[in-house]
Design brief:
The chain is mainly beta. It is 8% helix and 33% strand. A six-stranded antiparallel beta sheet has the order 4-3-12-13-14-17. Strands 5-8-9-19-18 form a five-stranded antiparallel beta sheet, with no helix packed on it.
Length: 282
C-alpha cells in the first residue's frame, strides 16, 4: 500500500470577510463606512516530509557479499541535509578474502529536498557490477534498493507488498524490467544464481570465520547490526520480485552530487552511485 503524505487544509478563518472603516469624506459632515469582502490568502502548507524518523532503506549485493541499511533519524542530518549510514570497511566478501575487496560497501546516504529524494552509495563495486565471476551470467552486481515505511520488519513488509523498491542497476537480476521506482513491492533472493550466500546468517558466519579480528572487524549493515532481527537471518532477500512501476530515476554526476552538498572524497570506496527521484511518487 502506498504511503500517503498528509496535506494540511487551509484554516477556515483565513477566508472570513473583513470590515474596513474609511475616514470621513472631505467636505461632508458624515462619516462613510462600508464593508469590503476581502478574501485573505490561505495559510501556506508546511513542507511535506517523506523521510520521517524510523524508515529503513537498504541494499545488498546480488550475492549478499555485503549490504548496508540506513534508518532515518538515527544519525544527525548534516548542514547540507544529508544523512549517512557508515558500514564496516572490513566485511565485504570475495571468497576467503574478507574486507576491502570489490564487494565492499562503505556508506549509504540520503537527502530530501522540496521535490526529490537523493540517494548515494559509496562502494568499490561499479554500477555495472563485477564480471568474470562464478555467477550464472558471469556478472555479480547490485541488488535493488528498498524503502520500508510500514513499521514492519523487512520480511513481513515484503509478504504484504508494503515495500517501495528502486531498480538502479541495469545489469542485475531483478525481476522487474525497467530502471526506476516501484511501489507495492515484494522481494526475492538472487543469491542462488550469483554463487552467493543462502542467508544473512551464513554471510555473518563467513565474515566471523575468515575476516580480521579486533576493533571494527565484525560484520555490520550500516545503521543496523548484521544480526539485527529487522532482517530474517535465514533469508537472503535482495531483489524486487514484483511491484508497480511509479517513476524513473535520474543519475547524478560527481559535480551534481557536490553541488547538492554530498561529502565527496570523504569515503574510501572507488565508486559513488547516486540518483534522485520525485518524492511525490511515495
Amino acid at each position: 500500500m502506498r504511503n500517503k503524505l498528509p496535506h494540511r487544509k487551509a484554516d477556515d478563518k483565513s477566508f472570513l470577510p473583513s470590515c474596513l472603516r474609511l475616514p470621513s469624506l472631505e467636505g461632508l459632515g458624515v462619516g462613510s463606512a462600508f464593508c469590503l469582502l476581502a478574501l485573505a490568502q490561505p495559510a501556506q502548507a508546511e513542507a511535506l516530509t517523506a523521510l520521517t524518523p524510523g524508515i529503513v532503506i537498504n541494499t545488498f549485493t546480488e550475492c549478499i557479499n555485503d549490504g548496508v541499511a540506513l534508518v532515518t533519524g538515527q544519525n544527525p542530518v548534516d548542514q547540507q541535509g544529508w544523512q549517512y549510514a557508515i558500514d564496516s570497511a572490513n566485511d565485504g566478501v570475495d571468497g576467503l578474502q574478507v574486507g576491502g575487496n570489490a564487494y565492499e560497501i562503505y556508506n549509504l546516504a540520503l537527502k530530501e529536498t522540496a521535490d526529490d529524494i537523493l540517494v548515494a552509495i559509496n562502494a568499490n563495486m561499479p554500477l555495472t557490477g563485477v564480471n568474470g565471476t562464478p555467477a550464472d551470467d558471469g556478472n555479480i552486481g547490485w541488488g535493488d534498493l528498498f524503502f520500508n515505511f510500514s513499521g514492519q520488519d523487512f520480511s513481513s513488509a515484503s509478504n504484504a507488498g508494503d515495500l517501495f523498491g528502486v531498480r538502479f542497476a541495469g545489469t542485475n537480476d531483478s525481476l522487474v524490467p525497467d530502471i526506476g521506482l516501484y511501489g507495492d513491492v515484494t522481494a526475492t533472493s538472487t543469491t542462488a544464481i550469483n554463487s552467493g550466500f543462502s542467508s544473512i546468517d551464513a554471510y555473518n558466519q563467513h565474515v566471523a570465520t575468515y575476516g580480521c579480528t579486533g576493533v571494527d572487524c565484525a560484520p555490520s549493515l550500516g545503521d543496523l547490526a548484521a544480526n539485527d532481527t529487522y532482517f530474517n537471518q535465514n533469508d537472503s532477500l535482495n531483489a524486487i520480485a514484483s511491484g508497480t512501476y511509479l517513476t524513473g530515476i535520474s543519475f547524478l554526476s560527481d559535480a551534481e552530487l557536490g553541488a547538492a552538498g554530498y561529502a565527496l572524497n570523504q569515503f574510501a570506496g572507488e565508486h559513488t552511485i547516486a540518483f534522485r527521484f520525485s518524492k511525490s511518487s511515495i
